[in-house]
Automatic annotation (TrEMBL):
<keyword id="KW-0732">Signal</keyword>
<feature type="signal peptide">
    <location>
        <begin position="1"/>
        <end position="24"/>
    </location>
</feature>
<dbReference type="GO" id="GO:0030976">
    <property type="term" value="F:thiamine pyrophosphate binding"/>
</dbReference>
<dbReference type="GO" id="GO:0030975">
    <property type="term" value="F:thiamine binding"/>
</dbReference>
<dbReference type="InterPro" id="IPR006059">
    <property type="entry name" value="SBP"/>
</dbReference>
<dbReference type="GO" id="GO:0030288">
    <property type="term" value="C:outer membrane-bounded periplasmic space"/>
</dbReference>
<dbReference type="Pfam" id="PF13416">
    <property type="entry name" value="SBP_bac_8"/>
</dbReference>
<protein>
    <submittedName>
        <fullName>ABC transporter substrate-binding protein</fullName>
    </submittedName>
</protein>
<dbReference type="GO" id="GO:0015888">
    <property type="term" value="P:thiamine transport"/>
</dbReference>
Length: 346
């Protein structure tokens, strides 16, 4: 082979290699997931089917919402995530800061079937909510003297020293407290009615725990009857052999939105949009509900009666969902936690 031919051959080989590398990059996405059972369901319901359908590879970084958002901010000039998932409202801040790309609803084949609240600000960069952690009342269906039906029932003397509250350093605990505050006459500008209600409940024998495993311990060992918490945890308790059921409080159901978001400044947004579209499909959402008891946001998701009983399901189920403004919560979190700690220490 002449030197000229050799140079041409090597040049073509290099171009071919570069093209192959670019093609491989075009079929690879980097996302975050939340670890544990959630990540297992994420793989089963969305990631593996997406890879198989699109000849793609999905790289997972295990990172909860706050950590993932911190990484996204730190990587602002050279982001590593293509799609990022949040459960604490970080998409609102991320969109405002230009870290997330606006989404054209027309590019998502499943968007038309989402409930309006789940796609309220796609054009502003806030990705769609694909699952909801519904906060309501978990109760022991065998030992509780009656089934609770409202948030006001937390104050019912019948439950007294069999009531378990969760510390507001826990995200679900915060939402449960804000609902107790609301039915006690407070709002996001005034949490004192909720703190006064907590003082009364503790005086009647209620206890405060910090984590979900402690809730399970109270139900298993200390005859807990009622705990305001997320719908998926009633399922967790039943899997542990405990007779736990979930009910939405009649005054409303605080919702933790789990969103899937398109990151700005990445080269393969078309593939990322396909992943987001897969995530909001009725099949994927039904799978998540079956695996973890998260509420679907796609109106076409079909659930069995058993699964539907554990979640906010259908038009009637989701109309009671409410969302406390994540921006207000974040701005006041430290002050509220301090006031809470003083209240429960008395």
């Amino acid at each position: 082979m002449t030197s000229k031919l050799a140079s041409t051959f090597l040049g073509l080989s290099a171009l071919s290699l570069m093209a192959g590398t670019a093609l491989a990059q075009d079929r690879t996405l980097t996302i975050n997931s939340f670890g544990g059972a959630y990540e297992e369901a994420h793989r089963k319901c969305i990631i593996t089917p997406f890879e198989q359908e699109n000849g793609a590879t999905v790289q997972i970084v295990t990172a909860y919402s706050a950590d993932a958002f911190a990484q996204l901010r730190a990587q602002k000039d050279a982001p590593q995530f293509d799609v990022i998932h949040f459960s604490g409202g970080q998409e609102i801040v991320g969109a405002a800061e230009g870290l997330l790309s606006p989404i054209d609803e027309a590019k998502l084949s499943n968007a038309a079937d989402l409930y309006p609240f789940a796609k309220a600000n796609l054009a502003g960069g806030e990705g769609p909510a694909y699952s909801i952690a519904a906060i309501g009342l978990i109760y022991n269906s065998e030992t509780a003297p009656k089934a609770p039906s409202s948030w006001a029932d937390l104050k019912d003397p019948a439950f007294a020293d069999h009531l378990v509250l969760t510390d507001i350093s826990n995200g679900y605990g915060m939402l449960g407290f804000l609902m107790l505050n609301q039915v006690s006459g407070g709002d996001l500008d005034n949490i004192q009615p909720g703190l006064d209600a907590v003082t009364e409940l503790l005086g009647n024998g209620a206890i405060v725990v910090s984590t979900s495993p402690e809730i399970q311990q109270e139900f298993a060992q200390n005859d807990a009857w009622v705990a305001p918490y997320a719908s998926d945890y009633a399922f967790t308790l039943r899997k542990a052999g405990l007779p736990a059921k979930f009910v939405q409080g009649s005054e409303g159901t605080p919702a933790s939105y789990i969103t899937t978001n398109l990151v700005s400044g990445r080269p393969n947004q078309d593939l990322a949009l396909k992943f987001i579209d897969k995530t909001i499909s009725p099949e994927a959402q039904a799978c998540f509900a079956e695996a973890l008891r998260y509420s679907p946001t796609n109106a076409k998701a079909e659930l069995s009666a058993e699964v539907a009983a554990d979640v906010a399901y259908g038009e009637d189920g989701v109309k009671g969902l409410l969302r406390f403004d994540p921006k207000v919560i974040e701005a006041n979190r430290a002050k509220w936690v301090e006031a809470w700690n003083k209240t429960i220490a008395r």
